[in-house]
Amino acid sequence: MKLNTPRWWYSRDRRHAPVARLLLKPASWIWAGVTARRIARATPVDPGAPVVSVGNLTVGGSGKTPIAREVLRLLRAQGVEAAALSRGYGGTLDGPVQVNLAIHTAAEVGDEPLMLAADAPAWIARDRVAGAKAAVAAGAEALVLDDAHQNPALKKTLSLIVVDGETRGDEWPFGDGSVFPSGPMREPLKAGLARTDAVIILLPADLAEADPELVETFGDLPVFIARLEPAAAPPTGPQVGFAGIAKPWKVERSLIAAGCDLKDFVPFPDHAELSERDFAFLNERAALFDAGLVTTEKDWVRLPPPWRDRIVAWPVVAKFGDEEGFVGLLTSFLLPLREKVAAEG
Question: Going edge to edge, which strands form the sheet with 97-98?
Fold first, then answer.
């Protein structure tokens, strides 16, 4: 059974859920230790093409998939035949397999790979090395590796970390710094940043600028600011929203900021597969307010076909404030390696 993300994870104030934090600490030490040993003992494999890793330091909710989509777009705009590679979390297929929007479902390949495949070739593979080699053999000149900062299997040309820039109120992207399950971190902040080449702070559309304290957290690392922007206006009229992502409250905020007449919002766990009972409840809420139903693209691709006509997908995209500077970063890392591969070929 999947559980909703605890809101107290993202509070620096340890007075929130103190008993839960304390009881979960031993499990956190084990998690952090296993992750550190796995990374230290690995021998990363060069798949024969540059690898751009788009990951995060927390267990979810940073917005890495919109950033991965934008990295793919920018690379392909530079003439690079870039492809996405994902583990295919939540899907039944082991891979390697190239995602085909005409035949594959989220139940088979996962929801995020379906979103990535809308813009560029996308592959899923439990074995990242096998997946990378399959993508390169199929013509990929560069790989955008989705959610693999803690996976050391592949040699990474450029490691990007995506950080949620929401710091209003009591929120902080790393909480009190505790590792899962007593906090949101996949590994200690210092350890994760040591393998990072650049940081992307992803801001909600209605936040004017990044918190200077957050920017300072990353020291001398290059920091780029990106923003989640609506790709279309929310549906008109009263709406009941829902989302099954790590931080569903961010969707609620974004819909309201975009001018949606949001009457109610229902959170579900990340990657949740909704049951008929869930759909019945959503229908009841919509009927109560004489409203439509709206959700994220990520949630929409998981819906059974009969429900897709009933529910509107509200798309958002990530845009860099300094796009030219970010493209320069990509080019500085990737072009020398592409030239070397071309010369050897």
Answer: 97-98, 122-124, 82-86, 142-146, 51-55, 158-164, 198-203, 223-230, 316-320
